Amino acid sequence: MKNPLVVSVLVLAFALSVQAELISADADGFTDDSDISSVFSGMTLSSVGGYEGLDGLVYAWGDGLASTGTGVFANNLSFQRQWYAGEADGFALRADFDGPADYVAIDTIGDDYGGDVGVLYAYNSADVLLGTVTSGELGYGEVFRAEISRPSFDIAYIIAGGEPSGQHTVHLDNLAANIVPEPMTLSLLALGAVILKAARGRRW
After folding, report:
1. What values do phi and psi take at 148, rounded to 5?
2. CB 161 within 8 A of CB 169
3. What is the domain class of 21-179 according to CATH?
4. CA contacts within 13 A on the Cβ side of 67
5. Sign of CA dihedral 152, 156, 141, 51
6. Which helix or strand (DSSP H or E) is residue 147 part of?
7. Of 54, 96, 97, 158, which sits with the fewest C-beta atoms within 10 Å of its C-beta?
8. pTM to 2 decimals?
9. Each residue of 99-152: pLDDT tens digit?
10. What is the domain partition of the chain in residue ranges?
């Protein structure tokens, strides 16, 4: 007979693959300056960094550089639609997911003619950096789809913006993630515990 631990892991892996849900966030359909931090199912958006006056929220704003529709993500600063992923002086976009993800993606858009560079960081729930993807130099209005895929569901949140070493700024649009909704995650952990307990009570 198969090892009970192997059986339970296979059951959990299958359930995760079946129950995963692709969620998305886009600023289209909202009026300018609408707070969209908590309107999307499966995630919460925020603006993060040490730039003075940053209020921590994310807004919708109309923009001719939008990669989809007519709106992009914005902050409350005078830069509005620009995002920069520096820490001490940054104003980056953060998305926290309701359940762990194995795939995340966001459009980074060049906002001037100086060769902007966008960056996407993925972290786990312990704030450990899991992956980074950086665009090449983007011309004005040029779009790079930043994507990170993981072998397991361990991405808790992402941070995106202009690449900090060059102090680049970019516009951001069309965010997506493949997550396991949190109630399902807890149910699967409970299922695994039941399977293991049952298996240990049998002779294999």
Report:
1. -130, 125
2. yes
3. mainly beta
4. 21
5. negative
6. strand 143-149
7. 96
8. 0.82
9. 999 999 999 999 988 799 999 999 999 999 999 999 999 999 999 999 999 999
10. 1-20+182-204, 21-179
